[in-house]
Amino acid sequence: MVSRKALFDECMDILEQSGIDTARFDTMCIFQDMLSDQNPLFLPQEEVPEETEKRIRELTALRSQNRPLQYLLGQWEFYGYPMKVGEGVLIPRPDTETLVDQVLDICRENGLSSPKIADLCSGSGCIAIALKKQLPQAEVTAVEVSEAALDYLRENARLNEADIDIIAGDVLKKETQQKLSGMDLIVSNPPYLTAEEMRSLQTEVTYEPASALFGGEDGLGFYRAIIELWRRSLKKGGYMVFEFGDKQHEAVSSIFKRYSFDNIRLRKDGGGIIRTAAAVKTGDDFIRYSDSSEQSRKNTEE
Ligand SMILES: C[S@@+](CC[C@H](N)C(=O)[O-])C[C@H]1O[C@@H](n2cnc3c(N)ncnc32)[C@H](O)[C@@H]1O
Fold it and tell me: Is 175 left (phi over 0), alpha (psi -120 to 50) or beta?
């Protein structure tokens, strides 16, 4: 049998040799998980049981081939809540916590303690579940089309005891939109990569479903479709809040303005990238044909 320390060093070395930048962190996560011990090197000479050693070696080998760590562990944290993940569902990203923060701030500023919220393209359910946990009186509905993702979404709602409604449906279809009305907030982190970005994905990201990533030729297909279609489900004065990719904020702001949304507020993520936008639905339901992105630039939040 091998000691924890010897096996740890060996596994970390394998990951380093394979070019994994986060070799130490990843090895630590694998050890913590496999040994059910938050501090696996506290007793470095402790022997690792044979079966556990075998499993650790298997996971290290898979990780060295760039398989996402989160899929190997089967669970990842989002906003402090555990989320089950695996192939077929997008891994929740820390950047997406910016969206949850912005929605919570909007609710606080507007005194909304029991808002009706729809989370479109819900994936693992991370946004919907975090919002329900933070706003227990809210009525939260998650909408998702992929059967594989829906399985994780249902499991995560159960795991976190989050009483949310789940709709299996295509957000691009009117029949799905018509299931929800009078919403205070519609939030979404839809697929937003461009065709060009899809061609140059990091190997690790290729393990995630393309249907969770690809947002059409220019990456903006879902923003156009969701704003056009789902504004009908929003109350007058209600908010739509999106996450998007680097440098997509001006285009998303323009689409908002085209559909008579006002008071666009942008927010940066922890890395300083403008990551989310919130906008208010005005009363009029006409489409504007001239817009400028000046106001949105002025309103960028830190
Ligand atoms: C970028 S992922 C976001 C997942 C999750 N909201 C998050 O932030 O981690 C986009 C999600 O949209 C789903 N999706 C793609 N097309 C859809 C559609 N037409 N209707 C509903 N969901 C869709 C994908 O299956 C995927 O789960």
Answer: alpha
Q: What is the pLDDT of residues 78-116, one digit of tens each?
A: 999 999 999 999 999 999 999 999 999 999 999 998 999
Partners of 119 in beta bridges: 142, 187
Q: Is 15 in the pocket of ligand 1 (CB under 6 A)?
A: no
* Distance in angstroms (rounded) separating the CA atoms of residues 280 and 256: 9
Residue 213 neighbours by CB distance under 10 Å: 17
Q: Is 212 in the pocket of ligand 1 (CB under 6 A)?
A: yes
Phi, psi of 200 (to 5 degrees): -125, 40
State if residue 278 touches ligand 1 by the CB under 6 angstroms criterion. no
- Of the pLDDT bands very low, low, confident and very high (cuts 50, 70, 90), residue 235 is very high
Class of 87-301 in CATH: alpha beta
> Quick one: which atom of ligand 1 is closest to the CA of 173?
19
Backbone angles phi, psi at 293, to 5 degrees: -95, 10
CA dist 283 → 135, 150, 226, 260, 302 (Å): 27, 34, 18, 8, 29
Q: What residues pair up with 243 in beta bridges, in sequence order?
A: 276
Q: Is 148 in the pocket of ligand 1 (CB under 6 A)?
A: no
Task: Name 131's Cβ contacts closer than 8 Å, sequence gap at least 6.
Answer: 100, 103, 104, 117, 119, 138, 140, 187
Query: And the tokens for 250?
Result: 């001006």
Alpha-carbon gap, residue 194 to 161, rounded angstroms: 36
Q: Domain map of the chain by residue range?
A: 4-65, 87-301
User: What is the distance between the terminal CA atoms of the chain, rounded to a whole angstrom?
Assistant: 53
- pTM value? 0.93
